[in-house]
């Protein structure tokens, strides 16, 4: 990861750059350098994106531990606060790793999209980026409750032609399947933005998972730690119209029996007294002081990821 990061052009940090609105987030090279400089962490390349960027898993904790937590970030490439939060979590956990649990981090699911967002920031272009390079929403491409929706009608939620058709999703699913051969993935967290929400399965069907009580217990404890967040089952969001087929949290729960939570981190800059933020997709999804907010959110989530909530 380090040598790959070093091969990328060293651009001015986004926090110190001459952008119209500097933001306190790591760009692509800085992000890879930060992940590769974590102590007590094992880095593994697990695949390549549509455009050939490497996909990574970073593992923290006892190598042979049979209890595993999975943390996924950057499925939606403009949701940078989730990506920073994953890094903050990894940094904190790696300083004091557990003896009986491993945490498998997937730091950046959609690197092609992320790079596009970074280029837009540097060029001063206000663009919303949601899909991967094939135009697929990587949170509709997972096997559980998958339903093919492509073309114009699917719009921004295009699922791809079949489950795991996209290399970014397929790499994570096959890696977790391998991990699950001799370990139990009992905790899963996916980090998104926006909306201050704690979401639980199912997204693809109306009924509740059999482990509803445990999900509610965890979600309500997280709500106490996070503050002003709403707890919801994804498919109950807008009754009848908010089914999300092929979501990561459905799959993580169905395939591995994990208690599987999606966090919509922050409300971006919406609600602040900066009207210019309302027409800038990056600032709708992400607060300006990204690293500071990420550290706060990560501290609230850490006991869950450690299996100690
Ligand atoms: Zn998202």
Total helical elements: 10
Poorly predicted regions are none
Distance between the termini: 32 Å
Averaged pLDDT: 94
H/E topology pattern = HHEEEHEHHHEEHEHEHH
CATH architecture: 3-Layer(aba) Sandwich
Shape: globular
Number of domains: 1
CATH topology: Aminopeptidase
Strand order of the largest sheet: 1-2-4-3-5-8-6-7
What fraction of the residues are assigned to beta strands by DSSP?
A: 15-25%
User: Structural class given helices, strands, pairing?
Assistant: alpha/beta
Largest sheet: 8 strands, mixed
CATH superfamily: Zn peptidases
Each distinct ligand: zinc ion
Q: Gyration radius, to the nearest Å?
A: 18 Å
| Percent range of helical residues | 25-40%
Quaternary state of the chains: single chain
Q: Under the CATH scheme, which class?
A: Alpha Beta
Number of strands: 8
């Amino acid at each position: 990861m380090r040598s790959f990061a070093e091969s990328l052009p060293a651009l001015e940090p986004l926090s110190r750059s001459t952008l119209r609105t500097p933001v306190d987030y790591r760009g692509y090279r800085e992000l890879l350098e930060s992940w590769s400089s974590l102590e007590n962490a094992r880095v593994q390349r697990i695949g390549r994106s549509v455009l050939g960027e490497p996909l990574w898993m970073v593992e923290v904790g006892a190598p042979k531990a049979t209890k595993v937590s999975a943390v996924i970030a950057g499925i939606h490439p403009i949701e940078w606060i989730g990506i920073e939060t994953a890094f903050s979590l990894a940094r904190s956990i790696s300083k004091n790793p557990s003896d009986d649990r491993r945490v498998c981090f997937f730091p950046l699911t959609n690197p092609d999209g992320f790079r596009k967002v970074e280029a837009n920031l540097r060029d001063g272009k206000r663009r919303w980026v949601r899909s991967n390079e094939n135009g697929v929403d990587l949170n509709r491409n997972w096997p559980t409750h998958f339903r093919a929706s492509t073309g114009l009608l699917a719009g921004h939620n295009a699922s791809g032609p079949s489950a795991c058709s996209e290399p970014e999703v397929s790499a994570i699913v096959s890696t977790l399947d391998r991990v699950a051969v001799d370990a139990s993935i009992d905790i899963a967290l996916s980090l998104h933005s926006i909306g201050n929400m704690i979401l639980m399965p199912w997204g693809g069907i109306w009924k509740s998972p059999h482990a509803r009580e445990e999900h509610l217990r965890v979600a309500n404890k997280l709500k106490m730690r996070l503050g002003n967040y709403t707890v919801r089952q994804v498919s109950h969001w807008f009754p009848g119209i908010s089914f999300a087929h092929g979501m990561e949290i459905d799959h993580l729960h169905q395939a591995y029996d994990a208690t599987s939570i999606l966090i919509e981190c922050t409300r971006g800059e919406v609600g602040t007294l900066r009207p210019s933020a309302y027409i800038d997709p990056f600032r709708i999804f992400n607060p300006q002081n990204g690293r500071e907010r990420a550290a706060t959110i990560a501290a609230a989530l850490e006991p869950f990821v450690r299996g100690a909530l």
